[in-house]
Amino acid sequence: MNKLAEQYIRKEALPLIFCPGCGDGTVLNSFIRTIDEMGIREDLACVSGIGCSSWTPVYLDVDVLHTIHGRAIPFAEGLKVSRPDKKIVVFTGDGDGTGIGGNHLIHAARRNIDLTVVMLTNNIYGMTGGQKAPTTPMGAITKTSPRGNDERPFDVYNLVVGAGATFFARWTAGHPVQLEKALKDAINHKGFSFVEVLSQCPTQAGRSMFNTKDPYKMIQWYKENTYMHKKGDVAKIKDGKMPLGTLYVEDDVVEYTDTLQSIKEEAQCK
Amino acid sequence: MQIIIDEKYCKGCELCMNYCPKDVFEMSKKRSAKGYLMPEAVNIENCINCKMCEKICPDLCIEING
């Protein structure tokens, strides 16, 4: 194992649960590099829910909370309110974050609480056997939509930013260097920051939606169906292609734990 | 220059082979204890130390020294 990873991984939890070629492993790799570069190991707490993506922080030798399905964000909010000094990173999947925990996601974004949410989008419920998810593209064939998905997918950017998030970045698992920088910016940003990573699932999505089990071909498909966002442009889906990059940053928005702190001080004075 | 691939954790996904800009890796016929085909650093003299293989590896098992 990589020498850098050896310092951060709990060896008794190995091997990684991910299938060969899963993008979630690459995200774990980038995240280890990010926390090593930032030197925030002691200040970090990771929270995750249920799903393949939520296994990502479980291997790390830092404070980790592995919670119930869809409820990673409420746990993280509670942790942030009681320990505002901690930097909290939530790992969630597209089904866990926007499907089961969709309501929690929009309300955390509305409060603009200082969390970093990393959502690993594989467009399918991978762990449970390949059912359609809220992000599955229209017409895609899955186990629960054998004649093509009849529902429109979520536009996660408009959902999260519309609800009040102040940082949004999107990359694929095939961009490890850019992802590292985006994770660093998201952790440094004060307020609700959201990083969406398009992560390939060669086992479930590959078999039913992409007709290939080759993770590299899936990465190539993601690269062909996305475009680089230019600063100042409106981030929208053009000709079915998703924008990549740091899509939205807003500073100087009042943050939730700061408001709570000022209320606490005011109450204690009287 | 030395490229170490940890056979205990490699799952043979071929991402390192596909990501390498200098075609350093090749899939060998050798299987690991778990039955996965292992990549092998055959053209090690071409390596430019860009560390893309190290960064893309989903199983954190590649290390480049040098």
Give an overview in words.
- The complex is a heterodimer of chains A (270) and B (66).
- Chain A has ten helices and eight strands.
- With 270 residues, chain A is of the alpha/beta class.
- Chain A has a single domain, classed as Rossmann fold, CATH 3.40.50.
- Chain B has a single domain (2-65), classed as 2-Layer Sandwich (Alpha-Beta Plaits), CATH 3.30.70.
- In chain B, 15% of the residues lie in helices and 30% in strands.
- Chain B has helices spanning 15-19, 52-56, and strands at 2-5, 25-31, 37-41, 62-65.
- In chain B, the strands form two sheets. Chain B has a two-stranded antiparallel ribbon with strand order 1-4.
- In chain B, strand 2 and strand 3 (37-41) form a beta hairpin.
- The mean pLDDT of chain B is 89.
- At the A-B interface, helix 2 and helix 9 of A face helix 1 and helix 2 of B.
Please trace the helix and strand order of chain A, writing H or E for each element. Answer: HHEEHEHHEHEHEHHEEH
Terminal-residue CA separation of chain B: 5 Å
Mean pLDDT across every amino acid position of chain B:
89
The two chains with the largest interface, and their residue counts, are: A-B, 30 and 22 residues
Strand numbers in spatial order across the main sheet of chain A:
2-1-3-4-6-5-8-7
The end-to-end distance of chain A, rounded to whole angstroms, is: 57 Å
| CATH architecture grouping of chain B | 2-Layer Sandwich
Major β-sheet of chain A, in short? 8 strands, mixed
Largest sheet of chain B: 2 strands, antiparallel
State the name of the first-level CATH class of chain B: Alpha Beta
CATH topology name of chain A, in short, is Rossmann fold
What is the assigned CATH homologous superfamily of chain A? Thiamin diphosphate (ThDP)-binding fold, Pyr/PP domains
